[in-house]
Design a protein that fits this description.
This protein has one domain: Orthogonal Bundle (MetI-like fold). The protein is mostly helical.
Length: 249
Amino acid sequence: MTVARRAPSVVLPLAALVVAVGVWWALTVALAIPPFLLPSPAAVVARLAGNPDLYLTNAVATLRKVLVGGAAGITAGFTLALVVWAVPVLERAVYPYLVALRVLPKIAVAPIFLIYFGVGFDTAVVFVALIVFFPIVVGTAAGLDRTPDSHLDLLRSVDAGAVQTFLAVRLPHALPDVFAGVKQSVTLAVVGAVVAEWILANDGLGSLILAASENVQVDVMLAALTVLLAIGLCLYGGVALCYRRVAWQ
């Protein structure tokens, strides 16, 4: 892919962001919206610049939960997907319950975690792992079944072993579905970390947003949301970049 064709994928989203911020700024000025209801972009930037340590410290706390919980959930989900794919009977037995757990609102589980595990980093990590677990299981299991029969027949004709077949054909064909699950997981990990910080932890950007909402500090909330957005976009972009590097064509 040439640089000229890649450029719109970066320029257009940035242009849309600039337009959205400009509209936000214009509305606050034209409608004279009180800052306690909707501060201007300048006020949010000033809040970030005025106390960067506050947002950096909380961002690091949130990012730790996202990375540790996300890695644990992705690893567990990928492993389970391999197991249920390799053992069809187990897939038929377990998959309906995975679907049931997938549609269960995770925020409803948080109070149960609070009762059994208490408040803290470890509990928040387990909660994040639970949220990111299911997209990986579903995506990986579906991807491993997408291998064309012609490819499998070719490998059988040369007496390729199960491991060789998996590494040479099945896994490469499953990569689009696996990475689609990972993309969902990293975004859900950020959401899960914020929810965990509302209920199961006492640090991070989620706790900062909650405290700001109780004191009607909208500028603090928007500043924290801006940092969260940056974290989510960086993680998603990192996964997309990894997929471009390792995807089998």
